[in-house]
Amino acid sequence: MAQNFSKNLSFIGRNIKKIRQVKKISQAEFAHLFHLSRPSIGAYEEGRSEPKIETLIQIAKYFKLSIDVLLTRELSISEIFSLESIKKKLDKAHNLGLDPAATTAAPLIGQDRFLDYVIHHQNNDFIERQPKIGIPVTASSYLICFEMVGSEMVFQQQGLHHGDVLISQLVRQIDIQKVLGQVVSLVTPSGIFTKRLDSVNQKYLQLKSDDPSYPLQEVLIENVLQIWQVIGVFSEKTNPPTYLEDRMLKLEQAIDKLSSSS
Prior knowledge:
Elements: H1 2-8, H2 10-23, H3 27-33, H4 38-45, H5 53-62, H6 67-72, H7 77-94, E1 104-109, H8 114-120, H9 124-128, E2 132-135, E3 143-147, E4 154-155, E5 158-159, E6 165-171, E7 183-188, E8 191-200, E9 204-208, E10 217-220, E11 226-234, H10 243-261
Parallel strand pairs: 1-3
Antiparallel strand pairs: 1-2, 3-6, 4-5, 6-11, 7-8, 7-11, 8-9, 9-10
Helix pairs in contact: 2-4, 2-7, 3-4
């Protein structure tokens, strides 16, 4: 057991180095964050030493990662950029100057917390410990926010982009027919994913991507832990005009040109 744990810790050094490089943090600055010496960081990164479990917890908490991720695999650069993007969205949402009485605080489940949420989705203490986003509405039902992963819901540059924050409300399985045609996030034992609900029968949910190049997907209803309807989105991307909007704009310009020449 100790040997496996030690082997897993080999990812820590690589992850620390990659986080530092992406976020442009020196070894000395990283050491100062966690009350360590600079040579200790170098030793972790080179695999000559292993951090204490208390240090692992501090690093995971500071960068909003699960210890699972730090221990079991090497972070990708895109994941680290995603963490920074989520942090910026949170800062922006928290600094809107909104009246707290007119907002709803919704927990944010980022991509790095999907596995944790699947395991602890019924644990109120876990959910309360997640970062919150202030939604500028007084919601009558419980809201949660998931990070959008992938580009299956983008077509002709329109739709939900990777890294968007999806504002979602819980749907009871008996009400699933009411959200046909809507975008939903499904929580399943294998993870969390977002698609459009296409059809429902007694055994399966059929889902489709807005990008038609992706195939339809069937999910056994008995494997669905939760269904969340996406009712809003925080995005840093601006969708370009749709084809119809572009045609309407050209038509209006042609009418204006005819009117001015007559």
